[in-house]
Structure formats: C-alpha cells, structure tokens
Design brief:
Elements (H helix, E strand, L loop, with lengths): L9 H17 L5 H8 L3 H14 L2 E4 L2 E4 L1 H13 L1 H17 L2 E8 L2 E8 L14 E3 L4 H7 L4 H16 L17 H14 L2 E4 L6 E9 L5 E10 L5 H23 L22
Antiparallel strand pairs: 1-2, 3-4, 3-8, 4-5, 6-7, 7-8
C-alpha cells in the first residue's frame, strides 16, 4: 500500500498512512522503528502519525509498545453487528455449540489474516484467547487454514512464511519450561494442507495456542467460493484424535448448512444480503 501513497492527494496520503500504521500494529509491529519500516516513513513522520492515533483512541501505548486502542474495539463490534453473515451464521453456530459443548468460531478473511467474526463459548468453562475481532495470520489457525483451502500452493507458502514471521516476533514469554510455539516445517505443513483439501476439514493440533485443538471447515457461497469458516475448539483433554474424527463431519455439516443459508438469503428475510462481497473484508480472489 505504501508504494502508491505518494501518488495520492495530500489528505488521502495522510489518511492512508494512518491506516497503514494501524495495520502495522495489528500485524505485530509495536515500536516506532518497526512501524516506520513497515509503512516506509521517516521516524519523525511515523511519530506524528502514531501520536495522532493515540490521541484519537485508535492506538494505545503500553509497556510492550503500541497496541490497538479501544476505539477500534468499539468500531469492530459495530462492524460485526452490521455484517449480515454474522446474523445468518448465529443459529448455525449456536446449534453446533449446544450439540458439541465446545467453543465455536466464525471467521472471515481479511487480506493475509483471519478475523474472528463471532464466537459461542462452550459449556466447559474453558478460557482461550480467541474472541470476536481477534485478527491473526491465516496460516496460523485452523479456521484460517480452512479459508486457504482453494488457494494455489505458492500462496500457501507465502502465507506460511508470514505466520512463521509473526510467531518469531511475539514478545510474550513462552510458558515456563516449554519452547515457544512454531508452525511445523513447510513440507509437513504443505502435506497437511493437501490432506485437508481432500477431506474438506482442517485440524489445528495446538499450532496456534498451547493446549487447544480444533476442527474447522470452509463455508462457501452460491458460486462455491470460500467466504467464511467455522471451527470447534477445546482443550486437548477433550479433543483426542478420536473425538477430532467424530467432530469432523458435524463441523462440515454445519458449514454446509451456513452455505445453504448464504445461497438462499431470501428464506431469511431478517438478514437479506446485498452481495457476496458483504461477507468479507476484501475480495477473496
């Protein structure tokens, strides 16, 4: 995005640079030097942009550097309420959560990331870091990889490299006595994705969060384009290999149900969709 900023009018250029700062912080760049390098601006310009965003509430400063501000959380909640996909999906993911007793997520693609659009907490009282509005690299999570299934292999590898880079830049200390989580090596990762393409179901085997496993499946529109994904997640003691196998068809069936609702929005008059583009933050092509 920064390559085209200089060709924009001055006001638009400043706006786009400010948005680029927010994207950089969301992607894990938390100090001025890292943000400036990402948006290709001088330190003084980066400082002015960051200071303005902090003042407006879009960013906040913590002991770990700059983080997304509460203003964005408020806007994110409003955006979710205004997305018809969330309304269409609610009955499906609520029923799935009741059926399995575990947490259920709905995610959509935003560029190279997955955004958790909705979450139904399970009945086991389990806490996990997932929440509506959370944004993570696509290749890092089960629900994100479900959104990747139709992509070409070079895109898989590019997204995989971004996920590895994201994990390497995490500032949080690993659990005492345990190594930091890292994605599997590329050959294994690629082999898993090829297998998931065949089954239509993706597994997360503690790849993203220690002690958490999940089953995910893609949701398609009437053109068979992947527009969202559903996952069921829980702690490893409740997610043995046998239970993952048991849950796979149930998650896949829920994804098919939501796909049918998307294909026939006229059957759900309270959630009429204007176009398939309303499902995602940007084109999935």
């Amino acid at each position: 995005m920064t390559n085209s900023l200089s060709s924009r009018p001055a006001g638009a250029q400043a706006l786009m640079r400010g948005l680029a700062v927010i994207d950089a912080v969301a992607d894990g760049h938390h100090d001025l030097a890292a943000i400036g390098e990402r948006i290709q601006c001088t330190r003084s310009t980066t400082h002015r942009l960051v200071s303005a965003l902090v003042h407006a509430g879009y960013l906040r400063q913590s002991r770990h550097g700059y983080r997304l501000g509460l203003k964005l959380a408020t806007l994110g909640a409003l955006a979710r309420e205004q997305m018809p996909l969330a309304a269409l999906a609610r009955p499906v993911i609520e029923a799935l959560a009741r059926d399995c007793g575990d947490s259920v997520h709905l995610g959509i693609r935003d560029g190279d990331h997955v955004v958790y659009l909705d979450k139904i907490d399970g009945s086991r009282g389990l806490e996990m870091r997932s929440r509506p509005g959370l944004r993570l690299p696509l290749a890092l999570t089960g629900v994100g990889r479900a959104l990747m299934l139709d992509l070409e292999e070079p895109q898989w590898q590019r997204l995989y490299i971004r996920a590895v880079d994201h994990q390497a830049r995490q500032v949080e200390a690993p659990v005492a006595g345990l190594a930091a989580l890292v994605p599997p090596d590329w050959p294994e990762y690629r082999a898993r994705l090829l297998d998931y393409q065949e089954t239509g179901v993706v597994l997360d085997l503690e790849d993203n969060e220690r002690g958490i496993r999940c089953v995910a499946a893609p949701v398609r529109d009437e053109r068979s384009v992947i527009v969202a994904a559903i996952s069921v997640a829980s702690a490893t003691p409740w997610m043995s290999d046998a239970r993952l196998t048991e849950l796979a068809p149930r998650v896949r069936d829920a994804a098919v149900q939501l796909s049918r609702r998307i294909a026939r929005p006229d059957l759900h008059p309270g959630t009429v969709l204007s176009s398939p583009a309303s499902f995602t933050c940007e084109s999935l092509s």
